[in-house]
Amino acid sequence: MKTQPEWSTAVEHLCSADAKLAALIAEVGPCTIKNLLAMEDGPLRGAGLSQNKLLALRDLAAKCVDGTVPDKRALARMEDEEIITRISQVRGIGRWTVEMMLLFRLGRPNVLPVDDYGVRKGMQRLYKLRELPKKGAMRRRARKWEPWCSVASWYMWRCAELPGVKPGKAKTPAKAKAAGLKKKTAVIKKKVAAKRAAK
Q1: Do 62 and 79 form a contact (C-beta atoms < 8 A)?
Q2: Coil, strand, or helix at residue 120?
Q3: What is the C-alpha separation between 150 and 111, in angstroms, rounded?
Q4: I need a surface site. Which of 113, 143, 148, 150 has the fewest CB within 10 A?
Q5: Which of 148, 111, 109 is nearest to 98 (CA)?
Q6: Residues designated as active site
Q7: What's the predicted TM-score (pTM) here?
Q8: Dihedral pair phi/psi, residue 155, rounded to 5°
Q9: What pLDDT digit, counting tens, does each position of 21-53 carry?
Q10: What is the domain class of 32-104 according to CATH?
Q11: Is 13 buried (19+), middle (13-18) or exposed (0-12) by CB count in 10 A?
Q12: What is the per-residue pLDDT across 105-159, written as a single tens digit (0 to 9) for each?
């Protein structure tokens, strides 16, 4: 299992690789929550942060300090929905963002991101649905996947990327009946033509 590199190693690499980033790191100092909250807007805006992103970053830092955003140890003891409720209180972070964290950072096995277009598209293609499925329909269909909805979601993403798979078109009873009659008529015509050819 790959371990996280030391922060000092990361900073050393960034400083040697990018002179402008090195100057910013020297001006800002260590990247800590305390420093971020104390920092003026100028250096952060100069690094390319928009006003909205700056406000979101400061809100995230503040909510880490006040305990709204749990630390790693607390996260390990919490249920998925509780984590979503807590972290989505941060400005700019919604349910989908937290679900991606649950999937790819915390490795939670039973996450179904019903707002994700790729998962919706994959389900539509797999089950040949005429339209993208609604959230409620997705949850009902996914009940049989539990407790492994995260794995199923991965396969939905892959399904959405597969070539040649097209959503099905739902037929009304009248259209289905007409299609069946058309098929039977074609079979009868072939048989009649074969008999005529044999005479």
Answers
A1: no
A2: helix
A3: 5
A4: 143
A5: 111
A6: 116
A7: 0.72
A8: -70, -30
A9: 888 788 777 778 888 888 888 888 887 889 999
A10: mainly alpha
A11: exposed
A12: 999 999 999 999 999 999 999 999 999 999 999 999 999 999 999 999 999 999 9
